[in-house]
Amino acid sequence: MTAIATLGSHCALQVLKGAKDEGLKTILVCEKRRERLYRRFSFIDEIFLVDTFAEILEQKCQSTLQQNNAILVPHGTLIAQMNSEQIESIKTPIFGNKWILRWESDRIMKEKLMREAKLPVPKAVTNPRDIDKLVIVKRQGAAGGKGYFLAANEEDYNVKRNKLISQGVITKEESLYIQEYASGVLAYLQFFYSPIKEELEFFGADQRHESDIEGLARIPSEEQIKIDKVPSFNVIGNSPIVLRESLLDEVYAMGDNFVDAAKRMVAPGMNGPFCIEGVYDENAKFTAFEFSARIVAGTSIYMDGSPYYSLLFNESMSMGKRIAREVKTAKELNQLDKITT
Ligand code: AMP
Questions:
Q1: N or C terminus: fewer CB in 10 A for the chain?
Q2: Under a CB-based contact definition with an 8 Å cutoff, are residues 183 and 122 in contact?
């Protein structure tokens, strides 16, 4: 029997519920402090307790996963808490392409892949001296928007950076990535690419709610001005958005281009779930500032199926269930090596 395993955080509930619904065994690698939460859910067959997620690299955890023929579904927590070398050294087969996760974590590689995919990316600013319009300053990796800040010029950049350093939010050594700020309606486009069917599916879209930038937007500008705090973009939750149907053709084209570029740049390509993140401006032109090369937490909005998947499947299909379905199909066809790395 094949099992699906994942780390206890991010979108673990959705992933394991989907696996259970597909008749697969479910294993959660869980920090002890979160055990109480996850014990509440009967679809989790086995909980492997750890002090920190880094224990997934240790023999004990790896052999448990191996004995269960487990496939590990990577999510944002894996990327946030482990570096690329650690992720790549995991012996358990990883759903999708573990090599592409490095391209997600490293801002320079990320921009390269997005350009290769012809995604309309905002201009990067290499030197703070060259900031001449509103920019967003980001940290490396999947920081979830924590420690990000906006800057209008070099001085503004230095003041805010120093403030965050003195508050211990970022470190002095940390290399920051500066990108032009793109304003518009947020849309995080969620896809699934099946290397078995060689088909791209558009699953859905979501928006993120980020604190404290969102809280700030709720108060009048006279009050905003008085606040002496660098607002962060820390993700608190997600909500659904359905796009104008006239935008869908371009959405699929962006997804296709991304899959094609990933095939060229990082074998075996962008297999499984991924997300292209950006904004639509007043002319409905999309600017993509980010991608995630694995399942995003925003898919958990649609645990009971998404509007777009209801067009493709005559059953409720979450992203977690879609992943498990792909594992089952691959197993039946003896092609597990096609969907894991
Ligand atoms: P990221 O880690 O790149 O997904 O960024 C976290 C959040 O910062 C996003 O959800 C957006 O709200 C915001 N953001 C990132 N890049 C940009 C950009 N270039 N223009 C506008 N907002 C951005």
A1: N
A2: no
| Preceding omega of 268 cis (within 30 degrees of 0) | yes
- Sheet (strand 46-50) strand order: 46-50, 25-31, 3-7, 70-72
Class for domain 3-94, per CATH? alpha beta
Instruction: Tell me the CA distances in angstroms from 321 to 181, 200, 229, 304, 305, one per residue in order.
Output: 35, 16, 42, 10, 9
Nearest CA to ligand 1 atom 19: 181
Both tokens assigned to 313: 């499947």
Contact call for residues 203 and 240 (beta carbons, < 8 A): no
- The CATH number assigned to the domain with range 124-180 reads 3.30.1490.20
Q: Which residue is listed with tokens 């309309």? A: 120
Residue from 290, 292, 294, 296 to probe ligand 1 pocket by mutation (most atoms less than 8 Å from CB) = 290
Report CA(72)–ligand 1 centroid distance (Å). Answer: 28
Range list for CATH 3.30.1490.20 in the chain: 124-180
Which residues does a 6 A CB cutoff place in the pocket of ligand 1?
122, 136, 138, 145, 148, 179, 181-182, 186, 208, 210, 233, 277, 289-290
Q: What is this structure's pTM?
A: 0.94
Residue segments in the chain with a per-residue pLDDT below the cut of 70: 141-144
- Average confidence score pLDDT of the chain: 95
pLDDT value of residue 231: 85
What local confidence, expressed as pLDDT, does residue 289 receive?
Answer: 95
pLDDT at position 142 is 59
CA-to-CA distance for 327 and 159, rounded, in angstroms? Answer: 50
pLDDT of residue 1: 86
Domain 105-119+184-317+331-339 carries which CATH code?
A: 3.30.470.20
Q: What is the pLDDT of residue 232?
A: 85
Please tell me whether residue 58 adopts helix, strand or coil conformation: coil
Q: Residue 331 and residue 132: Cα distance in Å, rounded?
A: 54
Residue nearest to atom 15 of ligand 1 (CA): 289
Structure tokens at 338: 């096609």
* Encoded amino acid at 293, one letter: A
